[in-house]
Amino acid sequence: MAEVKLDLLQGTLDLMVLQTLLAMGTMHGYGIARRIEQVSGDEILLNQGTIYASLVRLQQRGWIAAEWGTSDHNRKAKYYSITRSGRKQLSEDAAHWQRLTRVMGRVLATPGEGEL
Amino acid sequence: MEGLNRVRSFFKKRSRDMELDAELAAHLELAVEENMARGMSAEEARRRALISFGGVAQAKEQHGEARGLPWLDVLLQDLRFTFRTLARDRGFTMIAVIILGLGIGANITVFSVVNTLLLRPLPLHNPQELVRILSKTGSGESSMTYSSDATEEFQRQNRSFQSVSGYYAFSGSDNLKLMGHGQPMPVTGLMVAGNFFQTLGVEPSIGRLFTAEETLHKSRPVVLLSHAFWKRQYSGDRGIVGQTIELNATPVTVIGVLPDNFDFGSIFSPGYKVDMYGPVIFDDIRDEGNTMALVARLKPGVTLAKAQAEADLLFPALHFSVKHPEYGGGYTGRLLGLKDYVSGKLRRSLVVLWCAVGLILLIVCVNLSNLLLARGAARSKEFAMRSAVGAPRSRLVRQLLTESLVLSLAGALLGLGIAFTVTTYLAYQGSIALPLLSSVRIDGAALAWTLLIAVTAAVFFGLAPGLRISSANLQEVLKDSGHSASDGKKHEALRSVLIVSEIALACVLLVGAGLLLRSFLRILDVDLGFKPSQAASISLDYNDGNDAGKRSVIWQEALRRVEAIPGVETAGITDNLPMSRNRSWGISVKGKNYRPGELEDTFVYVVSPGYLNAIGMHLVKGRDFRWDDTDKTLGTVIINETVARRLWPGQDPIDRIAVAGGMDARVIGVVADVHESSVEGTPGWQMYVSGVAPQFGPEGAQLVVRSKLPPETLASTVMSTLREMNPAQPATEFRPVQRLVDHVVSPRRFFVLLVSIFAGLGLVLASLGIYGVISYSVTRQTQEIGIRMALGASQARVQWSVIWKTLTLALIGIATGTVASLMIAHLIASLLFATPATDLSTFLSMILLLLMVALLAGYIPARRASRINPMIALRNN
Q1: Is A25 domain-assigned?
Q2: B53 CB near a chain A CB, below 8 Å?
Q3: CATH code for the domain of A88
Q4: What are the backbone dihedrals phi and psi of residue B709, each rounded to the nearest 5 degrees, phi first?
Q5: Low-confidence residues in chain B, pLDDT < 70
Q6: For residue A37, which residues of chain B lie inside 8 Å, CB to CB?
Q7: Could you report the predicted ipTM of this complex, rounded to two decimals?
Q8: Domains in chain A: how many in total?
């Protein structure tokens, strides 16, 4: 089972969505999902549908804004962009996440007994 | 912000869902397009797009949870489902709601009464500062009152009180005549000290209170009207204030109307309805002795103990009469918080009542638990199915709890209706002598209490069945037809435990009610010393100019005419009736000196010849008064047995000379003791003096008529006879003497009635429970019974086995209940009268009653079991 993908930790999808919107500007849901898949190198298990729960949650918290628009191929889609409070939230959450991964890394790096 | 958005989304579910659908459709199309651009076939592109999207339904569900109020969605879903199920099972729903309604209704009612009498502060300004001042000894009104001089001295000397006030304690009912409306109308007027309403903190709703000048001798007479009287007599006309009305031929100015929420009787004298209040003029009652009942308001920060310490110093030094310091005073003062005075004595009864309804609620819960279990067994397949298609256990429990909550709230609604009816009745009836009853109502606190018990009950009776049902073995239930033996056994064990506890609770209730009922019957059996039945009284009006001779003529004429009415056996006159207003003087052997405390206050009745006979008293020795007992130097007195025993122990008291009420009097008779103020207490010292003797004047006059005819038939004839003599005779009520006794025992009657109703309810619920369980087990065992009968078991044998089962449950329950009752009986021992807390006959009869009812409840299913046709039972599965 070499190709087992990573399960998403609670809350990480929200963070990824915010980061994606910060990096890419305005995008629709499908675009965000594809982008996350590409950036993660297809390493995480993402049902694209789950992104919509995340999007509505972020929207209701006021961190992203949404608007209907037309795509390059003249197709109607809902476009999302990060708001000012979304940027603030992202920087806080990202800092927290990085700290957490650092600590986890350190803890996991301590050698086990008899493994010296 | 998020919360608000969630609420908004909850209400805009439709449009949000449509928007999401559009968005998801766009998503898939974009994906398909991209896949096709990579060279896939249209079909493959769509397939791939759907795979990477994951479940559309899940995405929508997640979206909904993140967006709206998922718990509310679930709740609404549960509620919808609950209403559907309950509507389908109408019989069950109705029984459950009725049972709950009765239980909760009883609880709300009792809570409202307890809340009004015990918990809520008195409806007065800062009621915790108010204090009633009583004496430390004695029991009659006279020993609880103080003279004008003593009152004024205490008002001046104390440092603990903002103000000391009081009311005239001997004002009786219908003591005034309101003229100017055709026939003179009897009204009840109470005299209160000038600062009475200020002390209580009562503001008039119209007009003003008394001024200091109005409490002086020969001042212009004024009255304040009670709100009820103002509404009734003057139809709430504000113009009456400032006008003059005619009372007893005296013009009196109405200066104001008291507020609706002030009811003197409900606080100070339950059952006493005051129409108007006049100021006490201390100078006018200075020679009347002890007449003022005192109420005072503590200064802020002064404790009751501190005030009591001061009172202990001041009261013994107060003068009965400043003009005659040699009379002494002999006063004591016991300060009692007004609230304690009003409801202190009732605390224990009310707590017992509260416990009784608590037990009822427990029984109701156990009963409902049982019903739900039985129903759950029938629904086990439904639940197994739901859990098989993915409902988690928590969701099933939640569903069941929602059902119990809905039932419970419906029951609470019904209960509120019942409680509202009962409390309204209680507030408007006038025959139960309990304080504050007129202000009993369902208020916010009662509503909160209702909600609390409804929710608690729902959790209590819904949780056990909920857990039990949701934990049932899924496979077994689905595979089997529900007759799995082991599961059924477990089920039945739980139900049996419930039944046993239900019987035990009912047993406790029944025994408690039985003891109280027996006490009450004992009380009704007490020989009162007079015969209240077949006697009625009416307040008699006349003008004798305070002359004993004139009075004698009027009285003789009145009695002659009334006794001439067909059906009237005999008649007499007294100023005070037993079990109503009382007053005490002193009596002692002439020429003997007594130690302080050796003599007791003696209830005195100023009566006409023939009164003893009319009221049905028993003359033990000597003779009744005669119209010619009018010796100016030596009066006559009749004493009761207690006085005879205490003043002349071992001697014949007839013809001895006593000092009665300060006058020399010869003892001419001895009567049996009369219960003068309560049925339960022991009678005190009593004496009777003649109202036609020059020494003693009556305070008012009550005509007592003994007749086999009912008072209502006699009333108009008596009234017209009296009117012939005296056109000014007011239309007072001709009321049965029995009513006085009923009034005195009414609080006990009230408690006994309630507790008995609760016990009856408990009995019915317990028998319903037994019936349900036994009946269910018979249904479940139909096949088994069929087999046994096919193998030769007789009908009697089958019947007996079912009854035996009932008997076992009942006996275990009764044994448990009896032990619990024995422990609890001691707690109500102080409420019992002439009945020991372990009264064997009460215990036995109640246990027997419970057993009979239990057996009856078991007999019906047993009969059904014995009628089972083995052929049919075996064929049907």
Answers
A1: yes
A2: yes
A3: 1.10.10.10
A4: -75, 145
A5: 1, 138-143, 470-491, 876-877
A6: 52
A7: 0.83
A8: 1
